[in-house]
Amino acid sequence: MRAVRGLFALLLLLPLVASAQDSGNNAVRASDYPPASEGRVVIRPGEDKTYYEYRVGGEIREIRVEPDVGPVYYLVPAKDGEYIRQDGSQMVVPSWVIFEW
Fold first, then answer.
1. What DSSP string describes the chain?
2. pTM exceeds cut of 0.90
3. Which of 33, 49, 61, 81 minimizes the number of CB atoms within 10 Å of its CB?
């Protein structure tokens, strides 16, 4: 019975060990990913903000900006190459509940 408990405890600790080894702060760059026809999300950490670039067909459709202080906002590309700030997302992304505790 002790062996089963020990094995169970070891299995519970494995994800913690794996996450401790991968705790480096590596920036993700958009150039690391080739353009794809399906949608992608590229996360780019900044000094005081985190940017989530939503790409479809290799083109940026929307950028979600999460500042360290303040509300989340979105940047949507305009026709002149600039970005328009919006309070809400305009993208429709399918979401499913895979597992609920």
1. -HHHHHHHHHHHHHHHHHHHHT---PPP-GGGS---SS-EEEEEE-SSEEEEEEEETTEEEEEEEEESSS--EEEEE-TTS-EEEESS-------------
2. no
3. 81
